[in-house]
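Before going further, learn to read the protein records used in this course. The integers have meaning only within a learned vocabulary of local backbone shapes. To see the layout at work, look at the sequence and tokens printed below.
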Amino acid sequence: MDPRLLAYAPGAGIFLLDRLTKWLIETQVSAGDTLVVIPGFFNIIHTRNPGAAFSLFAGARPEWRNALLLGISMAALVLVASLLWQGPRVRSSRFLRIGLALILGGALGNIYDRLVYGAVTDFLEFYIGPYRWPAFNVADSAITMGAALVVLDMWRTRRAPQRT
């Protein structure tokens, strides 16, 4: 098997995990319901976010909002997929390879929702007292962790001594 294909495996796993968790929420939790998991800290909720992260653009007109968000997501997806396929440095750096794969899988999960439902299913809600973090999902978590790994790789590469 081509080793380049293996770089996509974590992304495929994230996409499947994201779809499974969203399917469970969509079929087992009524829209708008809240299940208290850890009182005062963590709930499982069923909500749909038509906007981007933190509901950015959620109140915008749907026709341009969906086109904009899908266009940006698809461009990012193509860029990340091509970096995973072509980049020799990507194959030599575990942090970068896994980070890009996590971003790829998370982007696929949210693109799927946007294409099928016109909005992304969010269900994880953390809070302390009146302070609430906006609801998110597995795909969002993967994108965030992937971005952190990419930044960590950039930082490590920059700090590495230059070989002459």
